[in-house]
Amino acid sequence: MLCTDLTQATSAKDVTAILHELRTYAARRQPAEVRAWLPRLIPVLEGLLPEAQINPFLRALLDPDAPYRPERSGWLDPKWLVIVAMLALLTVLVVVTLVVLV
How far is CA 26 from CA 12, 35, 37, 42, 52, in A? Predict the structure, then answer.
């Protein structure tokens, strides 16, 4: 079922969400059961993901006790940090200007 969902995913965000569901599902199953459906999953992953992302995902499936690394918050993106810093600087300059003029 998840392989079908993966083939129908239209964006990288959809693929990532399905892969997170798959990891949660695999964590509740026996390792032998997970290894049984990996041969069907690998060709689908090869078609959707760059090679550098496939191996870490498969390792995570085979080792369900591996720590889960949550996705970084969008606010930690450098472009947003620069925008916030510039707005803070602008606010400080406006306040200083108002204090000096009054």
Answer: 21, 10, 10, 15, 21
Cα 60 from chain centroid (whole Å): 14
Q: Choose among 3, 2, 8: nearest CA to 43.
A: 3
Residue pLDDT, tens place only, 31-60: 777 777 777 777 777 777 766 666 666 666
**What is 69-90 written as a DSSP string?**
-PPPPGGGSHHHHHHHHHHHHH
Q: How many angstroms separate the Cα of 43 from the Cα of each of 2, 38, 71, 89, 98?
A: 13, 9, 25, 51, 64
What is the rounded CA–CA span in Å between residue 8 and residue 2?
A: 10
Let me know whether 58 and 102 are in one domain: no
Number of domains in the chain: 2
